C-alpha cells in the first residue's frame, strides 16, 4: 500500500453535504482513495509513528476536489483562434468546426488530446466528459490515460446529412461524420463502449455519445439513451444550443428542443445535455422530472453569442433541482480549458444580468464545478468531494500567488480572483500528476512542439484558411 500525507493545508474545501471548510487540515491517501480527512493535529495524533511514502507540505495552500469539466471537445484543441470570433452557433458548427474535425487525423488527435490534458491538469481539472474522438476512440482513451487524467469519452456520431451538401464539405468529411442510419451508428457506439469503458483500472470510461440536434434522427437521440441504459453508462449530446435551433424546431415540429426530446422518449437520468440555452419554463420541469443533467458552458456563450444571460434559465434550473454542471467546451468555442474562468462566469453573469446579487453564490458555483459535475458524469459515488472513501482526485492552490493575497475568504478568493495558473499540485486517483506546476505524466515541451507541428498540417487539410467560408448558414433549415 502507498500512503501519502498532505500535511496542514491552510484551507480545505470538502464540498461535502454541508460544504464544510476546514482550516489547518490534513488528508491521508491510501493507494487511490482518501483514508482520512481531519484537522492537522488530529491526523498527527492518529497516525503517530505511521510510515508515509510521501509527505506533501500543505502550508500556504488551499486543498479542494479536482475540478470536473462536464463538456469538452479534446479533438478541437489544435483549432484555438482559427475560427473568426464573429460566428454564432450554427455557422460555427456547420461551416467551421465540421471541416476542422474531419481534418484531425489519428496522429493529430493523439497530440490534441495530450495538449488538452496538459492544459486541464495545469489549471486544476482532474476529470472530463469529452464529446468523443474523431477517429478510433482508443486514441483519446489511451492519450488521456497516459496523461494520468480521469475522464469519459466516446465516438462522435450523427446520422442525418443536410439535404444539400455544402461545397466546403469534402466527401471524406461526410463519410467521416455520418452513419447511414441510427442502427448503424448505435452498433458502432456499442462496440466502442464495450471495447473501451473501464480502461486504465476504471479511470477512463466510454459512453454512448452522439452529436445531437439536426444532424441526429429522433431514433438516434432515443436509441443513444436506451443503449446507454442497457450498457450501464451515460450519454451526452448538444441540444437547445441556440435560439435559432429552437425556432427551427418549433417551425418543423411545433415544439422546442427539450419538449421534443420528451415526446420522443429521449430524456432520462443517464443523459447530459450540453448548453440548453433555449428553454421554456415547462421544459425545465421536464428535465427535473426525468433527472436529466445539464452542462452549462458560460465561456462559449460569451464567445459565440448564445445568450445565456438574455434567454438562459440556469438559475431557474438550479432552483428546480436540475443538476447543472460547468464546461469549458472546446477551445474554439470558448478559448481555454481553464475551469476557474467558468467558476467566475457562473457566479457573476446572472448577478449582473438580473441585477440580483443573490444569483448563484460563489459556493454554488464551486459545487457546480465539483460535486454537481460528478453527479452529471454519474460518478459522484467516487469523486467530486473530499470525503473518506472517495478516490483521491485533489488539487492544491498556491496561496503565495499574488491573486490569493490576502485571503480573507477562501471561497470568494477562489471564485473571483484565482486563475488556474495558481494550481500548485494535482493528484488524480491517488497519483501526483503535477508537482509545483511541473506535470509529471507528460513531457510538456514535447507535447507543445508536436501540437504546433500538427496544427499546421490540420489547418492546411481543413481548408479553413484557403476558401471563402461563409459566416452564416441555412443548413438544415
Ligand atoms: Zn460541444
Automatic annotation (TrEMBL):
Residues 63-433 form the Amidohydrolase-related domain. InterPro entries: Amidohydro-rel, Metal-dep_hydrolase_composite, Metal_Hydrolase, MTA/SAH_deaminase. Keywords: Hydrolase. SUPFAM superfamilies: Composite domain of metallo-dependent hydrolases (SSF51338), Metallo-dependent hydrolases (SSF51556). GO terms for molecular function: hydrolase activity, acting on carbon-nitrogen (but not peptide) bonds. It comes from the Bacteria. Pfam families: Amidohydro_1. This is Amidohydrolase. It comes from Thermogemmatispora argillosa.
